Amino acid sequence: MIRTYAEAVAWIHGRLSFGIKPGLERMEWLMERLGYPHRRIKAIHVAGTNGKGSTVCYLRHILQEAGYSVGTFTSPYVEQFNERISVNGTPISDEEIVELVNVIKPLVEEVEQTELGAPTEFEVITAMAMYYFGKMNIQDVVIFEAGLGGRFDSTNIIYPLMSIITNIGFDHTHILGDSLEKIAFEKAGIIKAGVPVITAAEQEEALQVIFEKAKSVKAKAYVLGKDFVIKDYGAMENGERFSVDTLFSKYRDLTISMLGFHQVKNAALAVMTADYLRVYYSFIIEEEALRSGLEKAKWIGRFEKVCDKPTIIIDGAHNEEGIQSLVDTIKAHYANKKVHVIFSALRDKPLEKMIQPLADIAETITFTSFDFPRAATAKELYEQCEHPKKECEENWQAALKNKMSEMKEEDVLVVTGSLYFISEVRLFVKKCKKQTKTR
Predict the structure, then answer these.
(1) Which of 190, 260, 223 has the alpha carbon at shortest distance from 46?
(2) Pairing state between β 412-417 and 311-315
(3) Which range marks the domain in which residue 153 is found?
């Protein structure tokens, strides 16, 4: 029996030692023993290389503004573990985590003794979410973010109202494959028979895979740029303005506070999804709720300004596509500023392809590291860059303090790389700001 929250989270994280095990057999076993809670959930399933969390955030806010109670399952967390399972953006309580672990733990220990083997950390957390939303706290709708890939991701036991594939890019290639076709095949694995799929995938080879999968299971596919279109895009000082034409409506002069054209695409996915829910599933979503939801949506750790004077932006750009979106956003909003970059990442990422675009726009670039098993050292990153003003500092707190003391007030500091790194930086900056205010 687990008695405290600390014990519960320690037990969950202890499952990390079992690594990543693609496959649904253990999840299906757990769901059967739990009484098939996932079958009671009205779900929307989101997969893709980048933008999953932001798309979930936009859609949740739209549905909330329309009066619905919305559950979300997302990963990884930025501030606290509980946020992975949330209701209307509020993480579930420590007591609920303990309760869920005490339900799941005996079953995990039982299945470990079978030929199916030990469930992973992600499978355990997914099973907790399924039980929570299927038995403990049923919601009007629950949005599930796939963890890795889609076809064999543990979230793929659900049969959703709709599926969303944000985009296709190169990430986790050692598991998902080294071509866009292979990666798209894994992402398209979330498409279910007769369930519509909405996607912002752009490459022809990726779209062809999605179309073939959708056709094979008689699911209608809706593609950004073809079936729903972004128009009149313009960058604002503190956000983006754009219009979206769906198959059913025209939405003019929508605004979001999250910066970057990639966020406009994510918002357009949410708009199309909401419109489809309204037309085909009788969700009552007025235009004002849609507008208000988009405006209110914020997703921490994604081009988030955490400090003024100097401006400090943190962004969890953890792969090649994410870095390119970050660079494009900097060019659109801070073209006339001196931009300093602090970067740290996991060593299994395409580091050279991530570092070069950052070096191209940086006045200075500092490489650092953080306490994580797969984190690259600052020296490893430093050696892959040719920037004339590059620096190396293994201690990221020291790197951050040093750079902040050197910068001019009008300069911009961008801290980016691994989401695990960004999570630590965000907490550190918030703590520093709090201490400054209390002096």
Answers:
(1) 190
(2) parallel
(3) 5-296
Tracing tokens 């235009």 back to the chain, one arrives at: 287
pLDDT of residue 173 exceeding 80: no
The residue among 258, 256, 231, 259 whose CA lies nearest residue 246 is 231
Q: At which of 296, 331, 364 does a domain end?
A: 296
- The full DSSP string for 171-215 is -SHHHH-SSHHHHHHHHGGG--TT--EEE----HHHHHHHHHHHH
Nearest Cα neighbor of 94 from 9, 37, 14 is: 9
Kindly report the backbone phi and psi dihedral angles of residue 249, in degrees, each rounded to the nearest multiple of 5, phi listed first.
Answer: -150, 165
pLDDT of residue 435: 61
* Residue 360 one-letter amino acid: D
Strand partners, 73: 85, 144
Q: Considering the entire predicted model, what is its pTM?
A: 0.91
d(CA 72, CA 80): 15
Domain total in the chain:
2
pLDDT score for 63: 98
Mean pLDDT computed over 72-81: 89
β-strands 197-199, 229-236 pairing: unpaired
Residues 385 and 355 sit within 8 Å (Cβ to Cβ)? yes
Please, what is the angle between helix 261-280 and helix 52-65, to 10°?
Answer: 50
312-337 confidence digits (pLDDT tens):
999 998 888 899 999 999 999 998 89
328 and 212 share one domain? no
Round to whole Å and give the CA distance between 167 and 223: 11
Structure tokens at 375: 């984190």
Mean pLDDT of 85-107: 98
Q: Is the peptide bond before 76 cis (omega within 30 degrees of 0)?
A: yes
Q: How confident is the model at residue 438 (pLDDT cuts 50, 70, 90)?
A: low
